[in-house]
Design goal:
heterodimer; A: mainly alpha; B: Rossmann fold; Dimethylsulfoxide Reductase, domain 2; 5 domains; seven-stranded mixed sheet; six-stranded mixed sheet; 28 helices; binds iron/sulfur cluster
């Protein structure tokens, strides 16, 4: 059974996502709407992690892995409008990773008839769907000005 | 000679004329001389749009009277309407163009000023594309002006950096209507107020914002079959004083409160299942979202006692008709669009829409805000065309005879706060501001001033006065005011009025329309056939152009004309072959504008503003059914803490409009409300040892404001500051409420959160009152001793 392992992956993905969000908040502090939205998503990420705690105890999950994806995507310091676009691009990948991890876990939970875990997955995925819609919308809004005018 | 039918400064709403169904006429008048002629117009000092006649003598306005024939006011006028016209004759009107050189303004000719603007525009477009140009206009111009600006920016320049200051007042209104019903446009009619059995006013201090509409409500309340009144407002306002039920939710908790009401209606099955089935989509999702909002949970989160919530819910559940309104207490608050949409949902689940006495007003604030939105001066496409729909873009390109690719369709319009950010970054290099005063009205003022002062930002301001913003401009263009130009505008219940030119503008001032047309000509903007893009040179021709654009769209003006509008009352849109006298209320057949091919935009997530992809909307095409969009509560971010423990809300006083550019120049209005004040609760006053009139300072993370304390009428923990005041007394005066406000906005409507900020209250040592009485005492004793000395000297 690899459900335990995916609990770890989910936690790792949320960890990465939280780090990415916080980095964007620091690097783009003047983009107030981005900062506020990231603050909200950090709150959600923390809630998601907290909601997994009971399963960790129950399922005796391994220690979390190192936040590799965050490091790979946010290795450089990116500032300014172009930096924002690149950071949002990177964020969309972290959101996607988290979404996929939760989806896999949700499928497992269903097969395991673990309704409590299934519900937690469902709620987290509802948030991640919103995050994903937001990041795509924000990227689309910013891209024309940044690419064409600078 | 002053001939006034009433003293509107003292008796704001006038005498009662109780009624049900037919509101009696009462003509309010204020003239200073007997006019030679009366010229038909409508008031432009709030969204009510009262029909008004302008009294003229020797090319001067000498007074006004209400138009008895008009469906909006039946002759009545409020204090602003009766006195506001005096601003036209202020002696500080701008009369010539000004160009800034070496830090100070010099007079210039129109030729020089326009040449400078055109040269700069062309240079910037050549080097940086038209994405380096931005336009910020108003909610107070005329329809013809907005539409012309829209054609210039969308079909000529091709920039989507266009916004109106409606972003600050009713952007949420537009979004709420668009998301629920498919397109902007108020479903209800003022006629519904004459007939309704219940009124729900959410965050709308109608007594102050639209005084004549409030008179109508007061008259209903005194007449037979008075409606029940529910008011939702964290302050004990003049409106709330009259309520049968007054709910005072904590700032930031409108959504849980409304979810609580929705939950209760569903719980009691006070739901029109037949209507839901035939005319809506999304009820099940709403039911599940609101299911947790029991009265007890609502009380815990909002502070509204469960018993009061149930009382309000039972009125809404049992009333056979209901009119609801929302204004800034919703639109400028946390989860603005989410809350506004829940008001629509209340009507949808009860099936109380499109019927006599029932409907929603996602109220407008400014007099011509509806036109800013429908003509596309808020950056959207005009006539509620959808920039996301290729067919719509092509249709519009055909109307304008331009290539579709020039019309901004690569993204949504840029809201003003984003435009400012682009200017801060140096990406927007020219900002043209028409008829608005962002140096006082935008949130986080110190940053805004810094941006407007930037050397690499070329700022053009067209205004009638040297406003705080105009002072920061590179070029100032003097404009004609209401009464000095002809044009139309549309009020909060879709009533279109014409306002005829009554007098000439002062000096060389020109109408905004003439300035825009002049710019288009000098920029040599042309259509596909090489003909001038803007094909009109008079307001009436511009109106005809707009009729062609709006024909067949929800806001159809094609059946209107200057002649028809000049015959009596204002007329509602849609006005076309089917409805030659205008249509009273929308959605009478339960068919909404939500079809994929018709709608103004697709769905957005209410928490994040994320856009639902068009394909997804198409898959679940609501096809004419209203969309019930639920909204989960999202607890406010970055709220109060130990350093900033109080919540700030901002708003109006009854005598002023916006940044007082006009009303501050009218003695009667200014005398009635000359200064800023800071309203706090008795409890907070006690805690800080503050007495009425003491000088206090509010500090936020963004700036500070000071003024005398006004105690009472507000919940503990909440502070109120009127937003009208600016820097007329110098920058150090610190009276602008927006020094304090956070540059943050609703994710969907992008309307700033003026009603959700954390502040700290400080009592200043010097008391204004003490200072004043000390000065008086000193003067009195000085005079006394001078008299004494003189007497003694004389005796000697
Ligand atoms: S209610 Fe509004 S439109 Fe009517 S007179 Fe007063 S300010 Fe003018």
């Amino acid at each position: 059974m690899h459900v335990d392992q995916y609990l770890s992956h989910v936690r790792e993905a949320e960890e990465n996502l939280g780090l990415g969000l916080k980095k964007i908040m620091r690097q783009h502090s003047f983009e107030t709407d981005v900062v506020e939205m990231c603050e909200r998503f950090v709150r959600w990420s923390d809630e998601h992690k907290a909601s997994l705690e009971m399963f960790n105890a129950e399922d005796n999950t391994n220690e979390e892995e190192s936040p590799g994806l965050f490091k790979a995507l946010f290795a450089n310091m990116r500032i300014g409008p172009y930096g924002l676009l690149r950071d949002l691009h990177a964020l969309s990948l972290l959101i996607h990773d988290a979404h996929t991890s939760w989806t896999i876990l949700q499928q497992g939970a269903m097969a395991q008839r673990n309704t409590r875990l299934e519900l937690v997955c469902k709620e987290a995925l509802a948030h991640l769907n919103k995050e994903s819609m937001w990041v795509e919308t924000r990227i689309k809004n910013a891209a024309p000005q940044i690419l064409i005018v600078g | 000679m002053i001939n006034a039918s009433r003293n509107s400064i003292r008796e704001i709403w006038g005498e009662r004329t109780p009624y049900y169904d037919q509101w009696p006429e009462r003509v309010d008048q204020y003239i200073t001389e007997e006019p030679d002629k009366w010229v038909q117009s409508a008031c432009v000092l709030c969204s009510n749009g009262c029909g008004i006649d302008i009294g003229v003598k020797d090319n001067r306005i000498v007074g006004v009277r209400g138009r008895a024939v008009d469906r909006i006011n039946h002759g009545r006028l409020g204090p602003k309407g009766l006195h506001g016209w005096k601003a036209n004759h202020s002696n500080d009107r701008l009369t010539v163009p000004l160009i800034k050189e070496n830090g100070s303004f010099r007079k210039a000719t129109w030729q020089e000023a326009m040449d400078l603007i055109v040269t700069r525009s062309k240079e910037l477009i050549a080097r940086h594309t038209s994405g380096s140009l931005a336009f910020y206009n108003s909610g107070q111009l005329f329809l013809e002006e907005y539409y012309t600006l829209s054609v210039i920016t969308k079909a000529g320049l091709g920039t989507n950096h266009v916004d109106g200051n409606t972003r600050l007042c009713t952007s949420t209104s537009a979004w709420a209507l668009k998301l629920s019903f498919g397109a902007d446009g108020q479903p209800a009619s003022y006629r519904d107020i004459d007939l309704t059995d219940a009124l729900l006013l959410v965050g709308h201090n109608m007594a102050f914002t639209q005084t004549v509409l409030w008179s109508r409500v007061l008259d209903r309340m005194k007449g037979p079959r008075p409606p029940k009144l529910i008011v939702v407002d964290p302050r004990r306002t003049a409106t709330a004083e009259m309520a049968d039920v007054h709910l005072m939710p904590r700032v930031g908790t409108n959504v849980p409160l409304l979810n609580g009401l929705l939950h209760q209606l569903i719980e009691w099955d006070a739901v029109d299942h037949d209507y839901l089935e035939k005319h809506t989509v999304g009820f099940d999702a709403l039911k599940s979202t609101v299911s947790q909002w029991t009265p007890e949970l609502v009380e815990k989160v909002t502070g509204v006692p469960a018993s009061l919530l149930l009382k309000a819910a039972s009125i809404i559940a049992s009333t056979p008709s209901l009119v609801s309104t929302a204004l800034q207490g919703v639109f400028q608050a946390w989860q603005a669009t989410g809350a506004a949409v829940q008001i629509n949902n209340l009507h949808l689940i009860r099936g109380l829409l499109g019927k006599e006495g029932s409907g929603v007003f996602q109220m407008n604030g400014q007099p011509t805000a509806q036109n800013t939105r429908e003509c596309g001066a808020n950056g959207e496409l005009p006539a509620f065309f959808n920039w996301h729909n290729e067919k719509h873009v092509r249709q519009l390109a055909d109307i304008w005879n331009v290539d579709p690719s020039i019309i901004p369709h690569w993204g949504p319009p840029t809201p003003i706060m984003e435009i400012m950010r682009y200017a801060e970054l140096g990406s927007v290099k020219m900002l043209w501001i028409a008829g608005t005063n962002p140096a006082v009205s935008l949130p986080g003022l110190s940053r805004i001033r810094h941006i407007l002062k930037k050397n690499d930002l070329f700022v053009v301001v067209q205004d009638a006065f040297m406003t705080e913003t105009a002072q920061l401009a590179d070029v100032v263009l003097p404009t004609a005011l209401w009464g000095e130009k002809t044009g139309c505008f549309t009020n909060a219940d879709r009533t279109v009025h014409i306002s005829h030119k009554a007098i000439d503008p002062p000096g060389e001032a020109k109408s905004d329309l003439d300035i825009f047309i002049d710019y288009a000509r000098r920029m040599d903007l042309r259509d596909k056939d090489g003909q001038p893009l803007v094909k009109w040179s008079s307001p009436e021709e511009a109106f005809e152009g707009w009729k062609r654009c709006s024909k067949g769209r929800p806001c159809d003006y094609s059946g209107l004309s200057y002649e028809k509008l000049s015959q009596g009352s204002g007329i509602q849109w849609p006005c076309n072959e089917q409805y030659p006298d205008g249509k009273e209320r929308l959605y009478t057949d339960g068919y909404f504008n939500t079809d994929y091919e018709l709608c103004e935009g697709y769905t957005h997530d209410l928490t994040t503003g994320g856009a639902v992809p068009p394909e997804k909307y198409k898959e679940n095409n609501p096809a004419g059914r209203a969309i019930i969009l639920p909204c989960e509560y999202d607890p406010p971010l970055g709220f109060t803490d130990e350093s900033y423990p109080l919540l700030l809300t901002t708003g109006r006083v009854v005598y002023h409009f916006h940044t007082r550019t006009k009303t501050g120049r009218v003695k009667e209005l200014n005398d009635a409300a000359p200064d800023v004040f800071i309203q706090i609760s008795q409890e907070d006053a006690n805690e800080h040892n503050i007495q009425e009139g003491d000088l206090v300072r509010l500090e936020s993370r963004f700036g500070s404001v000071q003024g005398p304390a006004r105690i009472g009428g507000i919940a503990p923990g909440l502070v109120f500051v009127p937003f009208h005041y600016g820097y007329w007394d110098g920058e150090d005066a610190k009276t602008a409420a927006n020094e304090l406000t956070k540059p943050s906005w609703d994710p969907v409507s992008k309307q700033p959160h003026f009603k959700y900020n954390a502040v700290n209250l400080v009592r200043l040592d010097t008391k204004l009152s003490e200072l004043a009485s000390k000065t008086k005492d000193t003067l009195r004793s000085a005079v006394k001793s001078a008299v004494q000395t003189t007497k003694e000297t004389l005796k000697l």
